[in-house]
Amino acid sequence: MSRELGQRSDEELAALWGASADETVSDEIYRRYRRRIYLWCHGFTHDPDEAVDLTQEIFIKLFRHLEGFAGRSRFSTWVYAVARNHCLARQAQRGVAWRKRLASLEDVDVEDERCAEEVRRSDTEGVLARLLDRAHERMAADELEAFVLHYRDGLTVNEVTRTLGCDNATGARTLIQNARRKFRRLVAREDRRAG
Questions:
Q1: Domain spans of the chain, in order of start
Q2: What are phi and psi of 27, to 5 degrees?
Q3: If you classify domain 104-194 with CATH, what class do you get?
Q4: Residues with Cβ < 8 Å from 103, sequence gap 6 or more?
Q5: pLDDT (tens digit per residue) in 112-127
Q6: 58 closest CA partner among 91, 33, 22
Q7: Quick check: pTM over 0.85?
Q8: What is the fold, at CATH topology level, of the domain defined by 2-97?
Q9: Hey, do 2-97 and 104-194 end up sharing a CATH topology, with the first three levels equal?
Q10: Burial letters for 121-149: b for 16+ Cβ neighbours within 10 Å, e otherwise?
């Protein structure tokens, strides 16, 4: 049964769970998403212990509300939205203003252009493929996908929103901003190695 489950799509697993609440289905979903959710939570909190706590809370929420996945977007997008909303709610409970962590719109435009230039430079120097391969370890799958679509393939934020099935442009923009920050760290690390 577990081998058969391993060949099913995330969306099929969600439908199976909704129909049966089979523990082997939840185990497979957990296996696929535990690392992604933990890494996202860690990037959010910068604290390994808190990231573990948040990851456990998010999985509880996911399995409680799995029937709420209507299939209008990819399952991974829905999981990301649940994880993001949970982390934001945690921040709000602590009285931390999330808006302070977001750059102003002017800064976003400047940072966006800087990152686009770094991607072009990396591509010209033949290191972009290697950086994107390393990015798999640092970025959530949705972040990496949004990054590649926006910076390498040249899609606008609205086009990324539609392609990834995000609820709105803010979700896509957040994915791109998170991915951009992580990519710039990879570039800085690569520059240090080269120097």
A1: 2-97, 104-194
A2: -60, -40
A3: mainly alpha
A4: 111, 177
A5: 777 778 777 777 777 7
A6: 33
A7: no
A8: Rna Polymerase Sigma Factor; Chain: A (1.10.1740)
A9: no
A10: ebeeeebbeebbeebeebbbbbbbbbbbb
